[in-house]
Write a structure and sequence with these properties.
By secondary structure, this protein is α+β, with helices and mostly antiparallel strands. The protein has a single domain (5-130), classed as Alpha-Beta Complex (Photosynthetic Reaction Center, Chain H, domain 2). It is built from 4 helices and 8 strands. A 6-stranded mixed sheet has the order 4-3-2-1-6-5. A two-stranded antiparallel sheet has the order 7-8. The longest helix has 11 residues, at 103-113. The radius of gyration is 16 Å and the shape is globular. Mean pLDDT is 76; it is low at 50-62 and 130-142.
């Protein structure tokens, strides 16, 4: 069950944990989908173990804010259970505005996490598209169709 508007207040004060139960860090903000108004992303101050890619960097950089998807997340007893790994959150793109996720940054995040805007997990992160048959010769994209 997706995170509801009623749970958003609690999620904003939660500790995020990954799909394996490892603490990712405290939730520092909630970001809502511009089209549906539903909670879609959280910012998390990533904490935890150093990896080969972060070893030797200063602590402030490794504990930076990162965005994590609320797709397939759940909330219970002060914990936001994310359906992604600690490393995925740590490696998430960092460019973006603290107050709002613009569409370009959001597409990058969907691509990074292998998600589509509909919350599907069948998106190829390299092409940012869902699997298509060879008969479908249209270009796949995560962006909504242009309005006429």
């Amino acid at each position: 069950m997706p995170i509801t508007e009623d749970q958003a207040f609690l999620v904003a004060r939660a500790t995020a944990v990954d799909r394996h139960g490892q603490v990712v860090g405290p939730v520092t903000g909630i970001y809502y989908d511009d089209h549906t108004g539903a909670p879609a992303w959280v910012s998390v101050r990533v904490t935890g173990q150093h990896t080969e890619s972060t070893r030797g960097q200063d602590h402030d950089q490794t504990a930076a804010q990162r965005f994590a998807p609320l797709a397939s997340a759940s909330y219970a007893r002060g914990r936001l259970h994310l359906d992604v790994t600690h490393q995925q959150v740590r490696d998430a793109p960092t460019d973006g505005d603290d107050d709002h996720l613009d569409s370009e940054h959001e597409v990058g995040l969907y691509r990074h996490y292998g998600l589509s805007p509909a919350g599907d997990t069948d998106v190829d992160p390299d092409t940012a598209s869902t699997a298509r048959s060879r008969a479908d010769d249209t270009n796949a994209t995560l962006l909504p169709p242009a309005e006429s």
